[in-house]
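User: Teach me something about this protein's shape.
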Amino acid sequence: MKALKFILMMLLFTVIYSSLAYAEWYNPDWGFRREIALSNPGVALDDYQVLLDISYDSDMNYDYSDLRFIASDGVTILPFWIQSYDASSAKVWVKTDVHPGSSSIYVYYGNPSAFLDSSFENTMEVPAIEVASDTWATSGVDVAWSLTQDSQGNIIAGGKGYGGKGRDDMVVMKYSKDLQRLQTIKHGTGYHDRCYGVGVDSQGNYIMAGSGYSGNYFTDMWLVKYSASGSKLWSKFLYGESAQSEITGHNIVVLPDDSFWLVGSDARGSAHQDQIYIGHFDKNGNIIKDKFLNPYPGKYDYGRAIALDTSGNVYISGYINRPNYKGYVAKLDSNLNLVWQKEISGAYRGFLYDLKIYNDEVYITGRIDESTTDFRAILYKYDLDGNIIWEFEYNGPGPSDSFYDLIVDEAGFLLSGTQKDVNNKFAQTLYRFDKNRNHIYTAKADMGSYSGAGTSFVTTGDYVFFQGGYNNVNGPGKHNWHVVKWTERKLADVEPIFNVGEEETGCTDVDGDGFAIDGGQCGPIDCDDSDLTQYPGTTKVTDDNLPGGNVGECQVEISQCDDDGNYYYIQEKIAPVSEVCDNKDNDCNNVVDDVDEDYDEINDCFDDNCLDSVLDFIKLNPNQYGQNGDFGAFEIGKNNDKSLVYDMDVTSGCTCSQIVTLLDAGEGHLTKGCSPSLMEEFTGVSANPDRSLNRKNGKIVGRLIIDLDEIIPPSTFFILIIGILVIISANVIIQNLKK
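Assistant: First, the predicted structure itself:
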């Protein structure tokens, strides 16, 4: 009795364990998984985006399209977005609840037919969230024009601020990642000094480029360099003639050797008409090479952005006055020889503000004006040879939009700009588009009841962005320095730590019968994963054809798998019986329901449409009638039983009811047509014999086989049997406890 109790308890445990293990597996189409353990030393994080580094496994699809992330309950599907991937790993954002302490999720893979289910919009914060801002306001006009980043991840902003006596100073501010102001540098001559662009070298020193008073003219091109600690290292004016010149570019390209490139404008000669200036400088501010580019002499031309490709070619963008302003983009080789140039404009005018090179393709941003009030933001894409790939215009819900700075990333395009609403209020604005230029969101900085504009911005690389610009907190026209921190993901004081576990084999179920090649999480192992009809618990009737046995002897086999997965245990022998229409192979000839009692070569079980309950005989067929009986009966075809039985021709065109009517009228001795009056006498027999006495009812004698597989699905049958065993075991346990 104790042994029986132990066996029943083990059975009960096995049932419960197997059910739980099966429920935990996400989907049998995915053959493998790994547990990802999350450690969170901080507070609870709901719907938090965790960045995972998933190493490539040979069982994964080459493009990681079979990745799926499932919560620890084995059911909840977690949103995820594949930021990037290569042959060795993928960077994946997964949105999940991260509880304090330890928790886990699962990554599934190993489904060659799976499609990519990655979604930026479902995983990240859309629209972006403004998490912090810094406003610096003086009594003058203050603007943060340029943003960059040092090697420590600090944000460096360059612009201008009021220096007293109605004059402006160059200003550089250093921020922490939390947008805490760490350092402020003001540099000026006492006149109108401005920092349009700022760069950081490998030592953390600041390069400030703009304009200042050289003694010859109020706005000369001016380069200033400060150390990271705030000490001035050098200051240089360029081409200090009696003419206006400015380094108007909002970005500085700093190379690994700390030399740098910039773009600006210079007005030379008595006409004081600007031309584009391009310069390459060493780390001490000495000119290595430069060029004055005047596409249309006698007009005003301005450079706003500069970038270099991997071959050292130089690309610039800005705008030229011909006669109204037009956007301008050009490529120069490493020796500053012009390679190609393009103009871009609306019906009225056009401006280009930024230029980026990403994956050897050129992107430009700006604005085209169809009229004095209709401004449209633009984003164009070129190849390196200047061929246009696509043009994109965006006109938001308000009357005008402008794109100033651009970030191209794995999600698509993020743009800093300005949107004007129907109340003529401008806002510091963030725009997000996917790779196909579909609009995802527009986010506006909190300006209160005031206006503002966005200029350049920078990213820390993890979908956190810092945007420069200004607002008008002190009233119309009184710009105030304004830097905003945006995020497209939730932030935590302490990031969770993850660890990817060992590979677990899951449910490789090729034939889809619910049983796997390797068993495990799918339950019992399959007998033959290439045959849907062969799995544990199935019954089938076959001819054994064993030596010494009776050929045609029918046997029931219940599949039980051994090590090779192909063994079948013969449970019992069953003698064959006559075939009937019951979806079984009663006569053991390996053909199910092959009944043709009227020998018309039409299956009585499926195709004999005249086999009707109204008729108490079997031998009917859609266009024929035959009665299998003794003397005087009719049959189809030739005289098979050598008795006085004759053939009846095909009653072509007759319906089943017409045939029945014909027989009931006692006209069975007629052969043609559907009407007794049109029939022709054939046999001389005046009437049919009594069909009730002469018919053959097809009664089958013998044991009928019940195929449980046809009545109850295998999985349900298995669960039913297990449930019965559990109930029996529970009753036995209770009875023993009572004793």
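Now, about its shape. The first strand starts at residue 32 and ends at 40. Residues 1-23, 543-552, 559-572, 609-717 have pLDDT under 50 and may be disordered. If you'd like, I can walk through any region in more detail.
User: That's plenty for now, thanks!
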